[in-house]
Amino acid sequence: MSMEKPTLDVVLDTVIAADPRYARGAYLFLREGLDFTQQRIAKGERGGALRHISGQELLLGLRDHALDQFGPMALMVLNEWGVRRCEDFGEVVFNMVDHELLAKTETDSREDFKGCYDFDDVFRKPFLPALTKASLPPRPPRADARVRIQMPSKPKSEDKN
After folding, report:
1. What's the whole-number mean pLDDT along residues 10-38?
2. What pLDDT, on the 0 to 100 scale, is given for residue 9?
3. Alpha-helix runs per DSSP H in 19-54
4. Distance between the two ends of the chain, CA-based, in angstroms?
């Protein structure tokens, strides 16, 4: 009798039941983002071999992957999945480690995911329109400015002779 390894969907059901803070999409995105980050790092290194990446490297890769995949909607999508800050990605990673979907080294910890970047700064601010003079509302008149109000002149009545 062979023991079949449970499918990813079955394991994710267990993970989400144990910690419902994060939606399934967060776990699937993290897995994709990990692959994206490992491939990008491997391209830049001699030999091009995949290696273990740090929490900070993963966070930077997840940021870039989210912007590539979702553009200006990245913040909304991540928030919908329950991911609102870098530490949430750390929680997702360690939930996956706890259920043997990812591996960690002795030095990996949740602390590795603290404060790498602010979600508002990287996912919202780059998409805000630049403020220019043309986009600013008109300035109200100064309190000390003299205002001249010109009244329309009365129309001359026509002579009926």
Report:
1. 97
2. 92
3. 24-44
4. 121
CA distances in angstroms from 9 to 14, 24, 101, listed in the order given: 9, 9, 11
In the chain, what are the domain boundaries?
8-128
Using CA atoms, how far apart are residues 128 and 91, in angstroms rounded to an integer?
29
Calpha distance 85→97 (Å, rounded): 19
How many Å apart are CA 36 and CA 33, to the nearest integer? 5
- Which 8-state DSSP code applies to residue 160? -
Helix (H, G, I), strand (E, B) or coil at 140: coil
| pLDDT tens digits, 96-132 | 999 999 999 999 999 999 989 999 999 999 999 887 5
- How far apart CA 63 and CA 53 sit, in angstroms, is 15
Integer angstrom CA distances of residue 62 from 11, 14, 81: 22, 24, 14
Residue 95 CB-density burial (10 A; 0-12 exposed, 13-18 middle, 19+ buried)? buried
Question: Does 24 have pLDDT greater than 70?
Answer: yes
